[in-house]
Amino acid sequence: MEFLRKIFIEELGLEMHHFEKFRDNIQIKVLKKKEFLIKEGSVCNFIGIVVSGKLRSYVQNEDAEFNNDFYLKHSFVSAYTSYLTQNPTNCNIEALADAEIHYITLSQFDKLIEEDFAFLKLAKYISDLFFIRKCRRETSFLKNSAKERLQTLYQTYPGIEQEVSQYHIASYLGIKPESLSRIKLLTYINK
């Protein structure tokens, strides 16, 4: 949890007692590969931190699944729209490998904020992270080619190509796996 302590102290300017109070409210969930952290139709009541493993968020229709986010080590994880609205989520969050998630429930977090408004800094930090990631992805789909979206993915999730299968990366980019292979080959050839 050293990385989380650094966020509290160095990035947010909070004090050690804030980190300790937050840490004391954390619960742990261990997932096996292919197990769900949350399923479509459930209401999300937590914000988690990936301590180990990797997860994907996806939406599904009758024909296919579409990856819309990845959560690697030290990422905050949540079906955040559902968390904020307390309405059922339209996504699934599934472990791509065995994973350990440390999380705090909505009621626990609200209680911390009620007791000390300094925790609003953390709430804003988390909210900003989710918002910026979603905006970048949306803008990327509207403005960029598949090759440029791949480059953005590599910047957003360093090392993801070693962590996540090409099939899931292609789904996230909105292309077929064979198109991803072609883009990567052309990029390699043009270096």
Label this structure with key terms.
4-stranded antiparallel sheet; alpha+beta; 191 residues; 8 strands; Jelly Rolls
Describe the protein.
The strands form 2 sheets. This protein has a 4-stranded antiparallel β-sheet. The mean pLDDT is 93. It has helices at residues 2-11, 16-24, 80-85, 106-115, 119-143, 146-156, 160-163, 166-173, 177-189; strands spanning 27-31, 36-38, 46-52, 55-60, 65-71, 76-77, 92-95, 99-105. It has a domain at 2-116: Jelly Rolls, CATH 2.60.120.10. It has 191 residues and is an alpha+beta fold. The protein is globular, with a radius of gyration of 18 Å. This is Crp/Fnr family transcriptional regulator.
Q: How confident is the prediction overall: mean pLDDT?
A: 93
Query: How does the overall form come out from the CA principal axes?
Result: globular
Helical segment count: 9
What is the β-strand count? 8
Element-by-element helix/strand order: HHEEEEEEHEEHHHHHH
The third-level CATH topology of one domain is Jelly Rolls
Gap from first CA to last CA? 39 Å
Rg from Cα: 18 Å
Report the CATH architecture of one domain. Answer: Sandwich
Approximate helicity band: 40-55%
- Unreliable sequence segments: none
> So, the CATH homologous superfamily of one domain?
Jelly Rolls
Structural classification = alpha+beta
Largest sheet: 4 strands, antiparallel
Write a brief caption for the model.
This protein has 191 residues and is of the alpha+beta class. The protein has nine helices and eight strands.
